[in-house]
Amino acid sequence: MIKLLVLDVDGCLTDGKIIYSNSGEESKNFNVKDGFAITNWIKLGYDIVIITGRKSQLVEYRAKELGVKYLYQGIKDKKAVLEQLLEELKLTMNEVAAIGDELNDYKLLSCVGKSFTPKDGAEYVKNIVDVTLTSKGGEGAVREMIDIVVKENKQLDQYLALWI
Prior knowledge:
Blueprint: E1 4-7, H1 9-13, E2 19-20, E3 26-27, H2 32-43, E4 47-51, H3 57-66, E5 70-72, H4 78-89, E6 96-99, H5 106-111, E7 114-117, H6 123-126, E8 131-132, H7 141-152, H8 156-161
Parallel strand pairs: 1-4, 1-6, 4-5, 6-7, 7-8
Antiparallel strand pairs: 2-3
Helix pairs in contact: 2-7
């Protein structure tokens, strides 16, 4: 049973575009459907960790807004960070599902219980994940991932009961 979700930001929670204003301010697009699914996963009593290679105040703000407790930014070795967190949470890799889209996610995706990539993930990543989603990054890929995990965990009734 999956108990922890690991999310990448650029290319998964966003479409991978980074927009800068003339003054150097950064902008990203987050999908509200992904956010809705994330908050519902947390309402089921589980955790989410965001592990990203870049640092951004926008990501910190979004994580806080959604109630994500674990946020690691500027990370080169995502697998090592996850291993430390699993020790703290007393979970195993088999209890983890992760989504990533690029080579910096490769090692992490290779060792978790269930791995996902968006439709527009890198081919190298598509070759090793369990599921290539039908949604692109930033266009509901995380929502699609969570829907799959909830169904495979046999928690669909609990999940729907949050709203019906």
